[in-house]
Description:
The complex is a heterodimer. Chain A contains three helices and nine strands. Chain A is of the alpha+beta class. In chain A, strands 3, 4, 6, 8 and 9 form a five-stranded antiparallel sheet that branches. In chain A, α1 (53-71) packs antiparallel against α2 (101-118). Chain B has helices spanning 10-16, 30-40; strands at 2-8, 20-25, 51-54, 57-59, 70-74. Chain B is globular and about 35 Å long. By secondary structure, chain B is α+β, with helices and mostly antiparallel strands. Chain B has one domain: Ubiquitin-like (UB roll) (Roll), CATH 3.10.20. A five-stranded mixed sheet of chain B has the order 2-1-5-3-4.
Amino acid sequence: MTVSFEITDRPIDRAIGQHLADQASGAFVAFEGRVRNRNDGREVLRLEYEIYRPLAVKEGNRILAEAIQRYSVRRVYGIHRSGLLELGDIAVLIVVSAPYRDEAFEACRYIIDEVKRRLPIWKKEYYADGEAGWVNCQRCSQAGSN
Amino acid sequence: MKQVKIGYFAIYREITGCRQQQLQTAAESPEDLFTELMTIYPGLQRYRQAMVAVNEEMADWGTALADGDEVLFFPPIAGG
């Protein structure tokens, strides 16, 4: 079993997960989260991720270990980008290999959902109108002012 | 009084103008500490929905703080 979650400042190579393939795994699932040009109706030009690495790596590895335990997959891997990203760049890559496809799809879905929910990562969007903002902080601002 | 090390991220870092600071405080918990910080940095009052970590583990707002503790305040996260 392989468990490894990484944070990187460099562009993510989509081939990086290929080492998880092996002859006991008939299923290989990879999810790429990419920078999209719109969010909440606004045109996005680029993104910035700020990450607290010590806890992000620790929590990321916990999530990968949970996936192995829950879904009987053989090997899992995750990597999240930090810093400035352009449209189309890979922000996060999750890779799972397993004997069969059901477990591979389910484990991959579990990992990306938990990564988004639990890792200390913040996203700043830069918009076409010149403004910029931290995602999810508009809502917390409104709630805090009530 | 105790000395704590405080870490700020994302919008908190922009409001306070720093990534970390040392503070002498009487705060007994992260909740007390955040209340004190809102008087130092009034901009924080608009962004109260934080999570907190003490000594690199996620913690409750009522966790007892000790001298030398590191307290990290996380605004709402948005990975992926």
